[in-house]
Amino acid sequence: MTTLLEVSGVSVSFDGFKAINNLSFDIGPAELRAIIGPNGAGKTTFMDIVTGKTKPDSGEVLWGEMSRSLLKMNESQIARAGIGRKFQRPTVFEDQSVFDNLLMALKKDRAPWKVLFYRETTADKARVEELAEEIGLADQLQRKSGELSHGQKQWLEIGMLLAQEPRLLLVDEPAAGMTLAEREHTTDLLKEAAKTRAVVVVEHDMEFVRRLECRVTVLHEGSVLAEGSLDHVTKNQQVIDVYLGR
Amino acid sequence: MRKSFVARNPSVLIFLALLGVFTLAVTVLGEGLGVGLISTSFVKTLGKTLCLCLVAIAMDLVWGYTGILSLGHFAFFGLGGYMIGMWLMYARTELIVAESLAQAEIPPTPDEIRDAIGTQIFGVVGGSDFPAVWTFAHSLPIQLALVVLVPGLLALVFGWLAFRSRVTGVYLSILTQAMTLALALYLFQNDSGLRGNNGLSGLQNLPGAADVPQSMVSIWFFWASAAALAIGYVVAAFVVSGKFGSVIRGIRDDEARVRFLGYSVEGYKLFVFTLTAVIAGIAGALYYPQAGIINPAEIAPIASIYLAVWVAIGGRGRLYGAVIGAAFVSLLSTWFTGGQVPDLPLGIYTVKWVDWWLVLLGFSFVLVTLFAPKGIGGLFDLLTGRHGPDRHGAALGPDQGSLREKEAEQ
Amino acid sequence: MRILLAALSFLVLFTLPAAAQDSPIQKLLQQHRDLIEQSSRRTIAPAIDALRDSGLPAAQVVLEKWQGKELWQRKADGLFFFAERIDAQTYRLVDIATGNETATAAKDEIEQLKPNSGIRGMIGAALVQFQLTDPDPARRADALNAISRDAEPAHLAALRASIGAETDPDLRARKERLERLLTISYDEDPAARIAAIQSFAGDLGVDARAALNPLVATTRAVVSGNPPAAENLARVLEPGSEALPKDEAYALLVAADLAPPRINRDDIRAALAANIQNGRVGSVPVAQLDTDAARERAYAELAEAGIVPATATEAQVAEALASHTFYERYAETDPEITAAAAAALDDIALKVGLNQAADLTLDALSLASIYFLAAIGLAVTFGVMGVINMAHGEFIMMGAYTGYVVQQLVPDYTLSILIALPLAFAITFGAGVAMERLVIRWLYNRPLETLLATFGISIALQQLAKNIFGTQARPLTSPDWLDGALVINDVVSISYIRIAIFVLALIFLGLFLFIMRKTRLGLEVRAVTQNPRMAASMGINPERINMLAFGLGSGIAGVAGVAIGLYAKVTSELGQDYIVQSFMTVVVGGVGNIWGTLLGATLIGFLQKGIEWLNPSNTLAAQTYMILFIILFIQFRPRGIIALRGRAAGD
């Protein structure tokens, strides 16, 4: 199996506190992976490092078949290279319509000059509508996204991620604050997405992770504690200690 | 779904129509071509106001749409004025000098003419040599190009440095203010080559048009200002209408999110910052020939803050708001500070508006910020039935510009 | 009655003639009677010198009385007396040697000597010698002052003579120093002069440099061939070099009559204009005279015709420059002395440089403490609360005006400052709290709008101050004990006000640290800064804390205003002058950290003084460069010197 993203020996510390400690992690091109771990395990910092928001003190992050180093790229270059990220809290552009949000995310040339003279084609329009259908917002296209419900915003954000057509999706706690029905919809979306690309889900909720039916990586104090199926890792004594306390 | 540019921006047509009517009215009522109901000096005031509206549009683009509170756009405005002022002053002095030297028995050499011009221009700062910045002052086309290039390049370099190091929010405002202060202090020096605090003067006289009366010249400049404002408005509307507008508003509301969508935020900011600096430079180049004089005090940081005040009072994030704010506040300010407002006797104390106007402006600005964050432009929402969001409550997004709870509920 | 009086005076006159005429001092004066009567500055010197060098005990008194216009001459016999007025017509005559009253005289019988100011000065110089040995130390000190102000060769011997008998150790030291200085200038013996010069190596006194500098002063000269050996040559100059441009070199040649003058362009032009005939100058039409080449051609024609003097051509100029040697020579002819003086001056320059660096450091420190004082309040509001307060400068101004008003009511300056400091704190604290309650708390989370709203307040307050206090600067006078400066030597000094501001800055640093670290308020402020919701759930009222923190920051601004008012003039623009620097201080230092503010203030203070030192003529340029530096600095440390990292940075 080839790897899409390879993180090796990465460490980062904030004012002496080691948020990530010699972490190694890799994922293939079409794989769904869940990352779990207690608070402060370094889950969000791990995503920050991959997406270029935080620069690690040491270690290497390699991407794609060409094994390009992501550490030399900034956030927008990494995003254009094919890594999409969904934040914990839904962040969509509330002042703009659902249509504009999706259009902005659509995979197109992102250079200012090109964008300035960009006018949407029928194909682009169709693609936006198709995405809207997929996330269940087809009849909300002209609404301001700020007016959507919390769950709808989460989906819109996932839709925007899909519109980017990334090869790797990083999803931070997608199920937080969702109703049961919404969760199921979200699970389906993620599983569907993982058929053609790599998806990494960071989640607290064990039920949600179980429903994803995928490999699980357990983080603790900035490094990998265990990896395998959910049943496998939940039997691991160390994991039990960490989650239940010693 | 796909609508034409005008259909998406109905305000453009309305604005252009109103501007056209206004220009026609001033032309007909002015002294130059019309019946003379409006004095030449008032035509100049109106022409200057149009230029201020143009720079306010630039400010609205950079602040209202992109969220960069630049306190440096009046510096670009002033630089544009300086660039055109150099040519105006040089060319006019050259004519005067040539005329006076032609009276002499011996015809002057080119060097003598240049020295005489130098003495005329730089006598006040105790010099007669031309500083390097005046190299192209003799050439109108080059100075016209510099009107665009100098503010543009300064904005490009400054913006590149500032955005590259991710300076945002109030830090950026303070940094732009520092840049403005540095520029003003530099120009205040006598050896800056731009006549120190004397500035450039006599700019209202067009070289080669000595026999054209000022009433006519003022109308010409009024037309030019109106045309520039019209073009500026259309360009700005074009920039903010499409996907580019979506992106920059996205940057305003949540910069990090735009970055994770793969847009190079720095590039967009730099583009808008530079474009608006160029617009400001052009506005300045039209303003100062109507004002007649430019000096470094015009560039002082306070001027750029006033610019922000105009846009805020007019209503940022909408182009006509910026125009209304600039026109309303600057004309009101002219009216108050011109001593034309009757004093207000309060029994023990008489309020002289020349002294109290700034107090009034300051406090009313605070009130606008607190109670009418959408400014005068917000009144149009009342007319069209759109309701203004209530921006109190907790933030919905992680960034400062994002909507608030109550706002989203509507 | 008058006749009687005249007769009496006549009698007296002739009864004591011997004493009046025979005293040595009277004889001496009679010798120089012509010169004294002539009373001309140019010729009087021998008379004064004779008196000074006579060694007669009465000489000093005579000189003093002469200087004081109390010396009179009797017309009848030309004898000199001191005279005292009895009434409008009658004067009492006093013998100049003994001081005894000898006679009275009618006013028209005697004539007052009226030395002009030039002569009085010369007499004064002569008197110095006597004063050096005067029993009164104050007069001796005066004499030393007079000598150091305006030294003369003759003083040297007098000074040397007086040293041995000097009892006051301070005066003795001064005399010895002055003696060495005069030795440099006036001694005949080169060895003594060199010894004296060397004794001043590394001396910081301005007087030492004043004595040494003339020794190394040079003048330019030019000769054909090599410079004469008798000259004390400083250096040979190359025409066309930076030290001697060609034009100046040629001007030297012309001045020395070694070359014909070159007619300058204006003169050529005037000559041409004077010789226009039938629209032509020579053979050149006037219309063609708009180039230098044509003008030279026309002028050459005129010169050939003998109408105007010929001008030197380029080739002649080059020729003349090449065939002469240009050099600088010392006015002092002894090369050993000039060498010693140059060496001593080098030594002094080094020492002065080091001391200037020390002085600059003190200056920079005091500027840094002013910036720190101005910025510390801002560090609270901006750093701790994340609120930009553009009206901070106006709070500083309010503090300064509070000081001014208190001084109008309380005349005692010490007392008024002691009242003003807490009062300014109270007033600006109140203003800050009012502003926070009325405006800022509605705008939390909207920093750009806070910036603009506080700016609105700023312009309103500034204009209010203008309306109330007028536009002219108001003085805030410091108490007497803050006047003056701590002078360490001639180069290093620092005014007491600056020391006081430095101390005040230290006090505020301590106070701030104490409040933040040791008090309940500080703990709550830190809690609200880090996590307002959490703090609120712990029972802290964030609104109250924000209000108090804002009031505290504003109050400190008010106190800073009093301090700054003592040092600068109080105007309505006082605050505006400091606001940008204060923001810079906070931003450069790093937000949310008092040590960062301290470092930022130090950096900016030292930077500004350093740039001013490199470019002393221009404080505007210094500020420009400083701001440019800060813009570049932000490139490398966008979050300031002391930056918060990680999640706490909130990015």
TrEMBL record, chain A:
It comes from Rhodovulum marinum. Keywords: ATP-binding, Nucleotide-binding, Transport. CDD domains: ABC_Mj1267_LivG_branched. Residues 5-246 form the ABC transporter domain. The keyword Lipid metabolism does not apply. Pfam families: ABC_tran (PF00005). The keyword ATP-binding applies. It comes from the Bacteria. InterPro entries: AAA+_ATPase (IPR003593), ABC_AA/LPS_Transport (IPR051120), ABC_transporter-like_ATP-bd (IPR003439), ABC_transptr_urea_ATP-bd_UrtD (IPR017781), P-loop_NTPase (IPR027417). This is Urea transport system ATP-binding protein. GO terms for cellular component: plasma membrane. One of its GO terms (molecular function) is ATP binding.
Automatic annotation (TrEMBL), chain B:
The keyword Cell membrane applies. The chain crosses the membrane at residues 46-64, 71-90, 140-163, 170-188, 220-240, 267-287, 293-312, 319-336, 356-373. GO terms for cellular component: plasma membrane. The keyword Membrane applies. GO terms for molecular function: branched-chain amino acid transmembrane transporter activity. Pfam families: BPD_transp_2. It is found in: Cell membrane. Its main location: membrane. Keywords: Cell membrane, Membrane, Transmembrane, Transmembrane helix. It is a multi-pass membrane protein. NCBIfam families: urea_trans_UrtC. PANTHER family: HIGH-AFFINITY BRANCHED-CHAIN AMINO ACID TRANSPORT SYSTEM PERMEASE, SLR1201 PROTEIN. This is Amino acid/amide ABC transporter membrane protein 2 (HAAT family). It comes from Rhodovulum marinum. The lineage of its organism: Bacteria, Pseudomonadati, Pseudomonadota, Alphaproteobacteria, Rhodobacterales.
From TrEMBL, chain C:
CDD domains: TM_PBP1_LivH_like. It is a multi-pass membrane protein. Its main location: membrane. The chain crosses the membrane at residues 370-392, 413-435, 496-516, 547-567, 579-607, 619-636. It is found in: Cell membrane. The keyword Transmembrane applies. Residues 1-20 form the signal peptide. One of its GO terms (cellular component) is plasma membrane. GO terms for molecular function: transmembrane transporter activity. InterPro entries: ABC_transp_permease, ABC_UrtB_bac, BCAA_transport_permease. Keywords: Amino-acid transport, Cell membrane, Membrane, Signal, Transmembrane, Transmembrane helix, Transport. GO terms for biological process: amino acid transport. It comes from the Bacteria. Pfam families: BPD_transp_2. Belongs to the binding-protein-dependent transport system permease family. LivHM subfamily. This is Amino acid/amide ABC transporter membrane protein 1 (HAAT family). It comes from Rhodovulum marinum. The lineage of its organism: Bacteria, Pseudomonadati, Pseudomonadota, Alphaproteobacteria, Rhodobacterales.
